[in-house]
Specification:
Layout: E1 10-13, E2 18-22, H1 33-40, E3 44-48, H2 64-73, E4 79-84, H3 86-97, E5 102-108, H4 132-142, H5 146-158, H6 164-175, H7 183-195, E6 209-214, H8 222-231, E7 235-240, H9 247-250, H10 252-262
Parallel strand pairs: 2-3, 2-4, 4-5, 5-6, 6-7
Antiparallel strand pairs: 1-3
């Protein structure tokens, strides 16, 4: 059976306040499946496939502003948004550009800037990311061996995690549950990861924001979360010991508890 992608695929389930889930680069909304049962008892979940990923068609031009705008158009008004990794940057962009659309934010393993930057005339130094060469190597290898590149990226996300093998298996399984993104879309999304720097705009995130971060995250080092805490107008930080980049998979119970505590219906 051929699955025809929709403009933006959103799965809705559960009852309660609206909660939007945005996944990371190369993945789809299927990645949240292990915690859906717990969350759907309390929230009306809106599980998004970001444009170009999963069952959602890519949008053109493929830029963070446009992606955030297209996603925001499909969301319920005044929703709480959870964004993991790259999805966290999409969530931040929505909250900055359309603050009335967002009630509260939860940023999971996310950062305003994934890539380290030297202190050039036009940029402040940033050492709370990873070397740009890491992303460039992914970009160069994407055309020659897509599956190997994605496996390497999944492994990078879980390095240092006490349950790394289990987490990688879960990520790989979820990756295979939806149609694979095109190489062109993955390259464009990787360019967004390379180029995005939201540091100068973090002070405009005036909604209550919870940062959930693994202390062993190598893709978005926990230093980035501490920097965010110092610069967010209304920020809260939950560091999960022994977790890497996907604490909602490796530390599911702790993650759900932290989420519910912050988003407790009011």
């Amino acid at each position: 059976m051929n699955i025809i992608p929709a403009n933006i695929h959103i799965e809705t389930t559960g009852n309660g306040p609206n909660l939007v889930l945005l996944h990371g680069w190369g993945m789809s909304g299927a990645v949240w499946q292990p915690i859906i049962k717990s969350l759907s008892k309390i929230f009306s979940l809106h599980i998004v496939d970001i444009p170009g990923m999963g069952l959602s068609r890519p949008t053109e031009p493929y830029h963070l502003h446009i992606i955030a705008e297209k996603v925001a158009e499909m969301l319920p008004a005044h929703a709480d948004i959870v964004g993991w990794s790259w999805g966290g940057q999409v969530a931040m962009r929505i909250a900055i550009d359309q603050p009335d659309a967002v009630r509260r934010l939860v940023l999971v393993g996310s950062t305003p800037c994934f890539v380290n930057k030297e202190n050039f005339m036009t940029q402040q130094e940033w050492s709370s990311g990873i070397a740009p060469d890491v992303f460039r190597r992914f970009a160069e290898s994407m055309d020659t061996d897509y599956h190997k590149t994605l496996t390497q990226f999944l492994t990078l996300q879980c390095m240092g995690d006490k349950s790394a093998r289990m987490t990688v298996r879960l990520l790989r399984k979820k990756l295979e549950e939806r149609p694979a993104p095109t190489t062109q879309t993955l390259q464009k999304a990787l360019d967004i990861l390379l180029e995005t720097d939201l540091r100068s705009e973090v002070e405009r995130l005036r909604k209550p924001t919870l940062l959930i971060h693994g202390d062993r995250d190598t893709l978005a080092p926990v230093r980035a979360a501490h920097w965010m805490m110092q610069n967010l107008p209304v920020g809260f930080l939950r560091v999960m010991a022994g977790a890497s980049h996907a604490p909602f998979l490796s530390h599911q119970e702790q993650f759900v508890d932290a989420l519910i505590q912050f988003l407790e219906p009011i």
